[in-house]
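Progress note, sequence design subtask.
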């Protein structure tokens, strides 16, 4: 593998007249990677092969900013106009061959191969943006900002443009005359409020077009002919997803910033949500994008910083951040009020996620497990009482997204020693442990149990090995686990030596550990991660991904 990579950026600023400036910032991100591979006869037991590949990517971006700044008396005004253009292009070409006639030319001649294959791909998109913003400030007490943004995306067919206004206001209470007697205690207090609209265009290029894929077919004979079949459904009316957000916040600090508190309430309402829908199988079974409904997110963000000890020799600062969030699907389209996710393991586990009105995004859906019956088999609830398990017996089982997340950072300094520890935590989320299901359910031809706890739980939570006709469903509450956790994400200890002590440089010696420990009841590798798909509603499915590593770092920094 070899390649070339160039990242470049240049900026020009022009002072046109007093208070009026123009700034242009232009950047390029270029890389071109080439790969060559060859398996000679002596190393591949006669199954020789070769391949060549070329991957090219180029992104260009230009941001142009015109700003007017003016002050008069207690008033100040900043007006900004921005024009931005972004273009991205990706190309890929690959050839491969097997059963080479000779090893002499290695990977340089694909005609040397008896079996050949080739592949290429191209993708490009562009985004144009225009922003107008006016910021007004009166005596550092009252602040008002109004913004209007327009974005045009090539990812959409007809409705390329989205328009996103916003307004924000702030009141610095401590700058009022009536707060003067209290400033020794309350040295900063600010109230904030904002309302705005933001857009989302997170779909792949060409997703709204009706595309064809190459496929081979025959008419009952040995000869194969090349044909084409639809690979995507055209959706020319697809448009931007829009989220309307209201924020109300308070910032306050006490006793010369020894204690700082921030509280933010937010309410988001998403319209024209970008979701994927599946066709019926008799018309192709293809998945396609739709603007399929409304989603709400409400919550509170909290931030508390305390400078607990502040002396010449010892300082201790602690910061606690917490966030509570509740999301709910308010409305979907009348044509399809329920959207089902994909199967995480086709042929083994059915679809496990659902988007349904009244439920959270990232909701698990499947069968309710009751336990092991007297015959040693798994037992599930037959809600429709028809004597068998079918689609009508599936229910909501849990959700992947936490209700509350927490971050806690502590910085301590004693003379030349420094200690920093950062914890994070999440509460209220579940994980569907498909990896554990596969270790216990004996799927596939090998039919082996690989979970060491199976035998001691047999007849209690696991079916007996001699239970004939047992059905073990991966999309069931049996494999839903609580994913609450507390993790020491990072801890580091450092010692600082001055140039006067070392006689040649300032020296900092440090030792750190990432992911030192995690407190959780989850039986999988990592309670914090895992998703098998690319969408929010497919989060929380543990397919046995690589766990977060524990990393030890030893460092030395010299400043001359």
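Output:
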């Amino acid at each position: 593998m070899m390649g070339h990579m160039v990242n470049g950026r240049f900026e020009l600023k022009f002072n046109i007249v007093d208070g009026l400036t123009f700034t242009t910032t232009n950047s390029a991100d270029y890389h071109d990677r080439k790969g060559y591979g060859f398996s000679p006869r002596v190393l591949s037991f006669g199954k020789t092969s070769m391949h060549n590949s070329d991957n090219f990517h180029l992104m260009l971006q230009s941001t142009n900013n015109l700003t007017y700044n003016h002050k008069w008396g207690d008033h100040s005004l900043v007006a900004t106009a921005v024009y931005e253009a972004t273009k991205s292009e990706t190309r890929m070409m690959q050839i491969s061959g097997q059963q080479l006639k000779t090893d002499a030319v290695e990977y340089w001649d694909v005609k040397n191969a008896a079996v050949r294959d080739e592949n290429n791909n191209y993708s490009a998109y562009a985004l144009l943006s225009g922003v107008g913003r006016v910021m007004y400030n009166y005596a550092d007490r009252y602040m008002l900002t109004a913004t209007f943004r327009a974005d045009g995306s090539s990812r959409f067919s007809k409705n390329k443009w989205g328009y996103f206004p916003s307004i924000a206001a702030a009141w610095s209470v401590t700058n009022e005359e009536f707060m003067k007697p209290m400033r020794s205690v309350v040295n900063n207090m600010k109230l904030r409020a904002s309302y705005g609209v933001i857009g989302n265009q997170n779909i792949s290029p060409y997703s709204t077009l009706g595309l064809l894929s190459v496929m081979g077919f025959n008419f009952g004979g040995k000869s194969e002919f090349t044909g084409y079949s639809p690979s995507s459904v055209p959706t020319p009316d697809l448009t931007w997803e829009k989220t309307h957000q209201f924020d109300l916040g308070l910032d306050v600090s006490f006793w010369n910033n020894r204690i700082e508190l921030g509280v933010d309430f937010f309410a988001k309402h998403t319209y024209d949500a970008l979701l994927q829908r599946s066709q019926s199988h008799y018309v192709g079974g293809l998945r396609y994008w739709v603007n399929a409904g409304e989603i709400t997110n409400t919550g509170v963000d909290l931030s508390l910083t305390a400078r607990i000890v502040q002396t010449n020799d010892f300082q201790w600062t602690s910061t606690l951040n917490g966030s509570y969030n509740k999301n709910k699907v308010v409305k979907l389209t009348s044509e399809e009020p329920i959207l089902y996710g994909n199967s995480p393991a086709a042929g083994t586990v059915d679809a496990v996620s659902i988007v349904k009105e009244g439920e959270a995004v990232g909701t698990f859906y499947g069968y309710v497990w009751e336990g092991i019956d007297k015959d040693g088999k798994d037992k599930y609830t037959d809600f429709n009482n028809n004597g068998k398990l079918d689609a009508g017996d599936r229910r909501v089982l849990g959700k992947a997204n936490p209700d509350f997340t927490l971050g806690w950072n502590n910085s301590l300094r004693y003379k030349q020693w420094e200690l920093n520890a950062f914890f994070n935590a999440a509460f209220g989320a579940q994980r569907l442990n498909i990896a554990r299901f596969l270790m216990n359910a004996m799927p596939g031809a090998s039919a082996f149990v690989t979970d060491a706890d199976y035998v001691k739980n047999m007849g209690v939570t696991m079916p007996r090995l001699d239970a004939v006709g047992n059905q073990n469903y991966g999309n069931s509450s049996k494999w839903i686990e609580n994913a609450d956790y507390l993790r020491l994400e990072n801890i580091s200890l450092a010692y600082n030596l001055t140039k006067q002590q070392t006689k040649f440089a300032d020296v900092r010696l440090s030792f750190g550990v990432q992911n030192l420990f995690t407190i959780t009841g989850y039986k999988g590798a990592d309670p914090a991660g895992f998703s098998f798909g690319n969408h929010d509603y497919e989060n929380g499915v543990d397919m046995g991904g690589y766990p977060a590593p524990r990393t030890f770092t030893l460092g030395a920094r010299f400043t001359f």
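The chain is about 5% helix and 60% strand. Work on this subtask will continue into the next period as scheduled.
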